[in-house]
Amino acid sequence: MAEMVTVRLKVNGVAHEGRCEPRKLLVDFLREDLELTGTHIGCEHGICGACTILFNGEAARSCIMLAVQADGSEILTVEGLMQNGTLHPLQEAFREHHGLQCGFCTPGMLMTALDFLKTNPSPTEAEVREGISAVLCRCTGYQGIVNAVRAAARTLGGAAKVESGT
Amino acid sequence: MSAPAAPKLVGARVPRLEDPRLLTGQGRYVDDHRPARTLHAAFLRTPHAHARILRIDAEAARALPGVAAVLTGEDMARDCKPVRAGSRMPAYKVTSFPALAQGKVRYTGEAVAMVAAESRYLAEDALDCIVVEYEPLPAVAAMEAALAPGAPVLHEEAGDNLLLAREFACGDVDGALAGAHLVVRERFRFHRHTAVCMENRGALAEYASATGTLTLRSSAQCPGIVRDVLADLLDIPEHLIRVVAADVGGGFGAKASLYPEEIAVCVMARRLGRPVKWIGDRREDLLATSHAWDEIVEAELGVAADGTIVGLRAEVMADVGAYSIYPWTAAIEPVQTISFLPGPYRIEHYRGRTRGIATCKAPMGPYRGVGRPPAVFVMEGLLDRAARRLGMDPTALRLRNFIRAEDFPYKSPSGIVWDRSSFTETMLRAREALGWEAARAEAARSRAAGRWVGVGVASYVELTGIGSAIAVSPGMPVPTGTEAATIRVDPAGTVTAVFGIASHGQGLETTLAQVVADELGVPIETVRVLHGDTALSPYGTGTYASRSTVLAGGAGILAGRDVREKTLRIAAHLLEAHPADLVVQDGRVAVRGLPDRYVTVRDVAKAAYGGVRHLPRGMEPGLEATRFYDPYYGTASNATHMAVVEVDRETFHVRILRYLVAEDCGRIINPLVVDGQVHGGVAQGVGAALLEEIVYDGEGQLLTGTLMDYLVPTASEVPAMEVHHVETPSPTTLGGFRGMGEGGTIGAPAVIANAVSDALAELGIEVNELPLSPERLFRRIVGGS
């Protein structure tokens, strides 16, 4: 067995320290060592986006990062979205607009949408589709997700942009 | 007996009860269960399409630190029987499907050895240390070649590679086609597809030697079926096996079959006395989860001068892969194609022949639509060809031939009985909603201006909620015609409703709660639906074939009625009233017209468990019921899809400009969920029409082993969709529900193909092959090989 390394990082505002093999994927570290199983593994080659987290504030795929690369970082996972027992407006919008079915892509989709809305607070439908195309969903046909992200954008304060046709 | 109060929840857009846990990362999928001392399994998968196994040397792997055991096919054979998917179908050959390859491998990716280690990382390290010596055999790569004399034979016990053949015949099709005004013919090719559930398959087995009990947590759609077959394969009594499918990350039919890995983790866990978990990765999913479709259909349709169909004839060849899967068998796809080919049309003279051919590919299995996406692609393609040659509007041709209101119940040429459906109504609704004439005129103007724009239509009917009259797959021995519900009101008045189905994204925890809450007259917040656990539920098989709303909903209605009746009788006793004078609503049982004279369901429940002195004379205590439901024939579900597409003249990329569905799933329980199912189904159909294709080379090597090669549509490729509902309550099912989990995927490939054919009509191109990759379209339009 390879030599173990120490990884210190902050996840959802809480400091953690763990020891793991240098080859351990960040997503496995989150799920196995920190027992944060909300982040899912869908492809392990960076395509499906189910494992997306916010890494130092930006969306990143935790299945193609090593845990050691996250040493010293701040991470937000789906478990960190709810505040004081209240769903985040994005989570609320997903529920209201049926933006999830089996729920497996949902954590990655939420984190991707969160990052997307930070950079584009009042997106058009086409921009939302482009923005969430980094995550594959097999259940919803994306329509509920697109509606949810646009609704969340309005709730979060972005003014709806006039669409120039789709 | 008092009637239930007017439905309050059925029909309402109730937000899903599943969502809070799934939105907060608190879903519990197989991989989220981590029992103490769990061993992690990995499978060594063969790189050969077809080879004899000469020797496996696993000593070095066994010696690695952290490795608990390595099993090969020989070890596995000592602990369990091979799977043999039987069928009563006459021209079907039963073959064995071992959990680990025995003697030889038949497709690239077949598991030849299994490692259990302290982590998945160590298990995969150990795979690298296993040496397998093979004698390569010639691959059976293409289904046409597989039937050639002298072709290498995959299953020696079958004698050749033709695993099944079947024919449906009705009337005199040869005579009808000979006398037809016009016969259109085509050779259609629908390539190989796979489900790509976002959650890869996984299984976790725990064996308790003291009690002899085995618990399998699996990403399964059919825990009941898995439980029963494991009992047989592992020689463990049924009641000592518990199969749990908790949160499951999509299934689409691909998780409805028994898989080798499910058996293998059970064997390993029983051997070692430790929990054993296997979580497939995406490579394993693309290599070894069941595939779909892959059919060649040669078909002919004869019509009279006015467009009336006079006959239909088809020959289907299906590449069923290397193994016949349990319980559906290799027949499920090819036979369903000829069963449903006549569609929603009056066809007197029909002959459909089908053959299922074994090749060196992952096994064929059920996938959303099963047989009907190719069948509808073929039938709707033929209708458009006929309309084009007759100079008829394609919708008019269909309207002329639909089974009419006065024809129901209508027995199809393959023996399926269609109950009252809305073929004409959905077509008219779709025409109106799209503005069919205007859209066609607009497309024609675009084409005149040099763009390749086209409008397509496709209609279909599917059989859903199948009862005991018909096996879900032909001749299969597993009973698929019933489901059950147990509804239990506890002394506090809260309700637990347990079902044998296994929801995996469809929202059944919500829709079944809506049904139960309405039947009992209680708020939905007081109803908890449990499912997907053979230890909790009455006997059931699971969720597949668009059956759960019809069968579990029906069982829920029956059990709900029993509980309501007892509730009313107890309430009548407490209120000193007559049961017929009571209404139960919002958790209160009140005397009709005297809303202040009431008891709560909680009062009733308390009395029910309080002993006989609180109950009417002779009544047994308790407040629960278990009921089974068999809808016998099942019920039809139908839709018309329309699409406007444009083929880019430079990139040959197909863009969907508009997409519309007019569907009829009977009485709608939750419009939110129905729309979601349609959207998701259409998206998978869009993938099937334009992007997704499993490709093997001539040596049987999989070329689409990553999601960079197997293209699942993203939000950018899936269009916004309009969904319209025609609501014709089913006359044959309790509640009037019709199943609707698959329809989107059935209609979409056909309508996109037809719209592209319309766009390219002036070039004389009619689509006969899916998916329509830009490369395939380029070759059709520009030529070149």
What's a quick, concise take on this entry?
The complex is a heterodimer of chains A (166) and B (785). Chain A has 166 residues and is of the alpha+beta class.
Structural features, described:
The complex is a heterodimer of chains A (166) and B (785). Chain A has 166 residues and is α+β, with helices and mostly antiparallel strands. Chain A has two domains: 5-80, Beta-grasp domain (Ubiquitin-like (UB roll), Roll); 89-155, DNA polymerase, domain 1. In chain A, 31% of the residues lie in helices and 15% in strands. Chain A has helices at 26-33, 89-96, 106-119, 125-132, 143-155; strands at 5-11, 14-20, 52-55, 58-61, 74-76. A five-stranded mixed β-sheet of chain A has the order 2-1-5-3-4, sandwiched between helices. In chain A, helix 2 crosses helix 5 (143-155) and helix 4 crosses helix 5 (143-155). Chain A is globular, with a radius of gyration of 16 Å. With 785 residues, chain B is an alpha+beta fold. Chain B has three domains: 33-137 and 199-249 and 255-288, Aldehyde oxidase/xanthine dehydrogenase, a/b hammerhead (Aldehyde Oxidoreductase, domain 3), CATH 3.90.1170; 291-469 and 632-782, Aldehyde oxidase/xanthine dehydrogenase, molybdopterin binding domain (Aldehyde Oxidoreductase, domain 4), CATH 3.30.365.10; 482-629, Aldehyde oxidase/xanthine dehydrogenase, molybdopterin binding domain (Aldehyde Oxidoreductase, domain 4, 2-Layer Sandwich). In chain B, 28% of the residues lie in helices and 26% in strands. Chain B is built from 20 helices and 31 strands. In chain B, the strands form eight sheets. Chain B has a seven-stranded mixed β-sheet, with helices on both faces. Chain B has a six-stranded mixed β-sheet with strand order 9-17-16-15-10-31. A four-stranded mixed β-sheet of chain B has the order 20-28-29-30, with helices on both faces. In chain B, strand 18 (410-411) and strand 19 form a beta hairpin. The relative contact order of chain B is 0.13. The model of chain B has no long low-confidence stretch (mean pLDDT 97). At the A-B interface, helix 2, helix 3, helix 4 and helix 5 of A face helix 1 and helix 18 of B.
